[in-house]
Write a structure and sequence with these properties.
Elements: E1 29-32, H1 36-41, E2 44-46, E3 51-57, H2 67-75, E4 82-87, E5 92-99, E6 111-112, E7 117-120, E8 131-138, E9 141-143, E10 176-183, H3 189-194, E11 207-217, E12 222-228, E13 234-241, E14 246-256, E15 265-275, E16 281-291
Antiparallel strand pairs: 1-8, 2-7, 3-4, 3-6, 4-5, 5-8, 8-9, 10-11, 11-14, 12-13, 12-15, 15-16
């Protein structure tokens, strides 16, 4: 969802690829899951390398918070929420934040190995979406988990190769079409993020709406959405040019039902996200619905 900030300039940020997928002062890597539903099902957090558990905290609640509640957590200096730290030797510490309440399965002094489950992803602390925040420190300096470089080293610098945990991470993603679905009305994206069940679409539903979630949207990105009926023809179309850069963004399109019921068969929602550049980048997402 967000990469480490490599730009030391106050008020500015750049990820390690010199892109916009970070924010000012961000000290680690944010790995998001789709919604609160997946969080409740349980998504394991794994140790990045062999080491010894150094510190844990496990009693903070997981919930979607108001601005006032978030401010109280900041004032109490519990932004990380439930977290743990692992000492990997050679001055290297890994720090995991926003873990699910009471999900930590290790205690200080325990030995762990690379890839061992140690907790579950939650949304404790200061967060507006369920995700894991991972920070790496070496002798007190912030290290980018993806490059092995110090946070003060400029983006685009040649990557360090001597840290074994680096091979566990994916390469850079400029953006991601990460979720989507159908509903019967204008979507409430707070409800969707919480993972609450949407009303099922039936032949008599008052509207047919398709929505999609995007991570890493950048200003001037082009998003094309099409909702197709069982005959393959477009029921609704929408073309969007992003006006702002956002870490997380939702879009939707749809059509109200007229007198007749929706035709039975397979409906398909299609999204294409395009970003200009050299080379240009494109990603597609499809989601299907069957109306009986």
């Amino acid at each position: 969802m967000n990469y480490l900030d490599t730009d030391p300039t106050e008020g500015l940020s750049k990820d390690f690829a010199c892109g916009p997928r970070s924010y000012d002062g961000h000290k680690g890597l944010d790995i998001a899951i789709r919604s609160g539903r997946e969080m409740k099902e349980g998504i394991a957090v794994l140790s990045v390398a062999d080491g010894t558990i150094y510190r844990t905290r496990a009693s903070e609640d997981d919930k979607f918070l108001t601005r006032e509640e978030l401010d109280k957590i900041r004032a109490a200096k519990k932004e990380c929420g439930n977290g743990l730290m692992i000492d990997h030797g050679d001055g290297i510490i890994s720090h995991y934040c926003h873990l699910q309440k009471n999900s930590i399965t290790v205690k200080p002094g325990d030995k762990v190995v690379a890839g061992q489950p140690i907790a579950k992803i939650g949304m404790s602390g200061v967060t507006e979406h369920p995700h894991l925040h991972l920070s790496i420190y070496q002798k007190g300096k912030i290290i980018d988990p993806l490059t092995g470089l110090e946070s003060t080293q400029a983006c685009g610098t040649k990557e360090r190769t001597d840290l074994t945990f680096r091979k566990k991470f994916t390469t850079y993603e400029p953006f991601a079409l990460y979720d989507g679905g159908f509903t019967t009305q204008v979507p409430d994206f707070d409800t969707i993020a919480q993972g609450q069940e949407q009303k099922p679409v039936t032949a008599s539903s008052p509207a047919l709406v398709f929505w999609a979630g995007i991570l890493g949207l950048q200003v001037n990105d082009e998003v094309t959405m099409v909702l197709r009926g069982p005959d393959g023809m477009a029921v609704a179309e929408r073309n969007i040019k992003a006006e702002k850069t956002r870490a997380r963004q939702f879009y939707y399109l749809g059509k109200k039902r007229k007198d007749a019921d929706w035709a039975s068969g397979n409906y398909k929602g299609e999204v294409v996200l395009k970003r200009a550049g050299s080379p240009p980048v494109e990603q597609r997402f499809n989601h299907e619905l069957v109306i009986k």
